[in-house]
Design brief:
With 352 residues, the protein is of the alpha/beta class. The protein has 16 helices and eleven strands. A seven-stranded parallel sheet has the order 3-5-2-1-9-10-11, sandwiched between helices. Strand 9, helix 14 and strand 10 form a beta-alpha-beta unit.
Length: 352
């Protein structure tokens, strides 16, 4: 795999120079889940935004360009149709026949999520626009955590002249322009995303590659951050290893690695140290996503939970009560959609 970079070499790389410029602690932290991406643009046509978990399998299975998801045995299709996506993935993960094409399915997930792009009507775009203005000439600090695999947030910031800095990245596929400190914001991906790949050239041919549950890449050179979405399918064709955690209860990556470890550790740091956390489109899955909700249990930040569904509100209430968090003192619930709550989100985070 080549020699590891020593610390002095890493500090000289453009990606690490950018990481040294972003604040280590922030006042305003945004935490986005699938509901945020799905509800980020009321003007979008069907299929132009990433689906919710309950609709993800159908979207993958009916996409003729995704052979590993399109051509599945009837028994596998039935498993997904009769269970949640996570439950079906957990069940099928034990099957040797299913595991044979797991790496190809990871690559197809990257292909699938890379096709979504924001328009100016997108709420991520509007949020990025507000943050871009706020960063100029003020001491406002903020960061983003997203557990989504898409690039909607990243592209929204890029199109508003703000570069998204991601810890654990070593290389970019494009030249980075000169950037001022007020043109940078950190985005953290504890579950990975479609634009991050571990470069390799030792897997070739058309055969299957299977990584076991304990498979680990012992490298600390970081990963490639693909900025040009056109290059994501190329990375998939070259069998670069996608940095995406499996959409199942364990949220395990296909290969345990430095980048995901760094991202999950940084996610905890951001949650613990921030002043205000705005949570949008995130199910209160504290029983499975312990790596995130344990940090939310410990943080002293004021939490704003944006959620229109009563069942999810109730789940959050129970979680908050179990962790001695009191409404209006430690948290508040805004029972609205992302779109309807957007003015509240801007006000809470001093973006008006």
């Amino acid at each position: 795999m080549g020699k590891l970079y020593d610390k002095n070499e890493i500090k000289d790389l453009p990606a690490y120079k950018l990481q040294a410029l972003i604040p280590q602690t922030v006042d305003h932290l945004f935490f986005f889940g699938a509901g945020a991406s799905y509800g980020s643009d009321g003007q979008a046509e069907k299929g132009e935004l990433p689906p919710l978990g309950k609709d993800l399998f159908q979207a993958l299975h009916t996409d003729s360009t995704l052979e590993s998801w399109n051509k599945l045995p009837d028994a596998v299709v039935q498993s997904f149709n009769s269970s949640t996506f996570e439950e079906a993935m957990d069940f099928l993960d034990e099957s040797k026949d299913w595991a044979k094409k797991s790496f190809k399915r990871d690559l197809d997930l990257s292909r699938f999520f890379s096709k979504f792009h924001p328009q100016q009507s997108n709420l991520y775009w509007k949020l990025a626009q507000s943050i871009s203005r706020r960063l100029k000439g003020t001491d406002w600090t903020g960061a983003i955590i997203t557990i989504n695999y898409d690039r909607l947030i990243e592209e929204s910031f890029m199109l508003n002249s703000v570069f998204t800095v991601v810890n654990g990245v070593t290389f970019f596929d494009d030249a980075i322009p000169h950037l001022n400190d007020n043109q940078l914001i950190e985005v953290c991906y504890p579950h990975g995303a479609c634009q991050f790949f571990l470069g390799q050239n030792w897997f070739t041919g058309s055969g299957n590659i299977v990584f076991g549950k304990e498979a680990k890449m012992l490298q600390k050179g970081g990963v490639n951050h693909i900025l040009k979405y056109q290059n994501i399918p190329k990375a998939c064709e070259l069998k670069q290893i996608p940095m995406i955690c499996r959409y199942q209860s364990s949220k395990r990556p296909s290969v345990n690695n430095y980048f995901i470890d760094v991202q999950q550790a940084r996610c905890t740091e951001l949650i613990i140290s921030s002043e205000k956390i705005t949570i949008v489109g995130v199910l209160c899955s504290h029983k499975t996503d312990r790596h995130i909700w344990e940090a939310l249990e410990k943080t002293l930040a004021f939490l704003t939970y944006v959620e229109p569904g009563k069942e999810s509100q109730e789940s959050f209430h129970k979680w908050a009560k179990a962790n001695n968090k009191k409404e209006d003192i430690n948290f508040q619930i805004i029972p609205k959609t992302f779109k309807d709550a957007f003015p509240d989100i801007r006000k809470i985070n001093e973006l008006e």
